[in-house]
Amino acid sequence: MPQDVASALDALYRSDWGRIVAALIRLFGDFEAAEEAAQEAFAAAVDHWPTSGVPEFPRAWIIQTARHKAIDRMRRQGRFQEKLESYVASGFGRTSEEPNYDTDEIPDDRLRLIFTCCHPALALESQVALTLRTLCGLDTDEIARAFLVPSATMAQRIVRAKRKIRDAGIPYIVPETSELPARLDAVLTAIYLVFNEGYAATHGEPLVRADLCAEAIRLGRLVQTLMGPQPLSEVHGLVALMLLHDSRRDARSDNAGNLIVLEEQDRSRWNRQQIAEALPLVERALRGGPGPFAVEAAIAALHCEAARAEDTDWPQIVRLYDVLERLQPSPIVSLNRAVAVAMVEGPRPALALIDELAATGELDGYHLLHATRADLLRRLGISADAAASYARALALVNNNSERRFLERRLREMQALDA
Questions:
Q1: Half-sphere exposure of residue 283, counting CA atoms within 13 Å on the CB side?
Q2: Which residues does the chain have with pLDDT short of 50?
Q3: How far apart are CA 186 and CA 181, in angstroms?
Q4: What is the DSSP string of 249-260?
Q5: How many CB atoms lie within 10 A of CB 225?
Q6: pLDDT, tens digit (0-9, with 9 covering 90-100), for 109-130
Q7: Of 40, 120, 255, 407, whose CA is between 20 and 30 Å from 348?
Q8: pLDDT tens track for 336-365
Q9: CA dist 60 → 17, 55, 84, 95, 113 (Å)
């Protein structure tokens, strides 16, 4: 396959998988049928585009082809007449252009998809996992790593969630305002995990997937609009948090795509417009009775307000992590708090916290636990143990930019040990 076609298909899958699946679910009313049809359409593109060329509107081509593939499959299975009426009623017979929504509707298939995935009839973990699968196109292994569970466990959760939506007839709509609070926590969590996958891609070459970051921020703003003039503080907190993290995007890697750690970043490259937009949202979120997203946004704000790395108010960051541990205790929060403690009290007290956390085994498969431990050992001059922890982190990391960073650190420790 020509390189330009392969690149176009890869870019389309990465940027538009969620948009395509969301549109097909609107047309078909069925998650599995939509995903199967999308996969068949991409396979057809692999066969046809090398000779016909990349179409002017590749996303529309995929959606149209997927719809035709679904019709063909139903005909082969003898279910065409049985299903046609319901599919026409749901929009199956329309073109693949964006639909004309009524003025009282939210004009976004992906927002509908998130609210469908986050129906309270599903378990919270299943809601978020299904969103990552359908909206981001993440595979089961990637989602399992995000949840720190075995792939087989995650696969079962996703299959059960799809069947529950189908069997219970859960509608593919944005719910009424009165129904939003029951789904809001899961919706915000799902949007944030979409952002996280963009901010620190789990695999591949680039450290950042700007398309997913932008998509998550856009969806967060849509939820702000959906909640009316007085959104809950956590909505403000989430949007602020994403804006603040995304503001540092251009400074997080060099021209060769190599990772640059926070304290070494060129802060003149941070997006000051995004920071200025986010800081008032942080204040509003904290005034509204802070939840986890508001507290995380306050931590990110302290980083963004520091003109130099050495100006960062690390004691205040530790206090905010203390609050976050009370609001939302998790091993990831404890790991991040240990990093902040190292900046206030030095690496040895932080290493004790990391070793205590590692002893639980909860984060043994998480590369950043071992990378953090390695960095603390490096700062203490214990190069052999640092090298061992860097090697363990390397065995777990999947992103190439992070891999190169860890390899460089490992070589430094091996040289010192030698």
A1: 5
A2: 80, 84, 87-107
A3: 10
A4: GGGSB-TT--B-
A5: 12
A6: 677 777 778 887 888 778 888 8
A7: 407
A8: 999 999 999 999 999 999 999 999 999 998
A9: 12, 9, 21, 9, 19
Task: Return d(Cα 135, Cα 239) in angstroms, integer.
Answer: 19
SS3 (DSSP) at 411: helix
Q: Which residue has the tokens 């129906």?
A: 119
What values do phi and psi take at 267, rounded to 5?
A: -70, -15
- Asked if residues 18 and 131 have their Cβ atoms less than 8 Å apart, the reply is no
Query: In angstroms, rounded to a whole number, what is the distance separating the alpha carbons of residues 230 and 56?
Result: 42
Length of the chain: 418
CA dist 135 → 6, 117, 130, 175, 282 (Å): 22, 10, 8, 18, 27
CB 133 within 8 A of CB 158: yes
Question: Two tokens at 338?
Answer: 């240990």
Identify how many contiguous H helices and E strands the chain contains and give both numbers.
Answer: 19, 0
- Rounded CA-CA distance 159/140 in Å is 11
**What are the two backbone dihedrals, phi and then psi, of residue 312, each rounded to the nearest 5 degrees?**
-65, 135
Read off the tokens for 140: 């089961």
Burial of 265 (0-12, 13-18, 19+ CB in 10 A): middle
Q: What angle do CA 140, 144, 149 make, to 5 degrees?
A: 140
Assign 3-state DSSP to the chain and report helix, strand, coil percentages, each to 5.
75, 0, 25
**How far apart are the C-alpha atoms of 223 and 196, rounded to whole Å?**
18
Give the DSSP per-residue string, 203-243: SBS-S--HHHHHHHHHHHHHHHHHT-SS--HHHHHHHHHHH
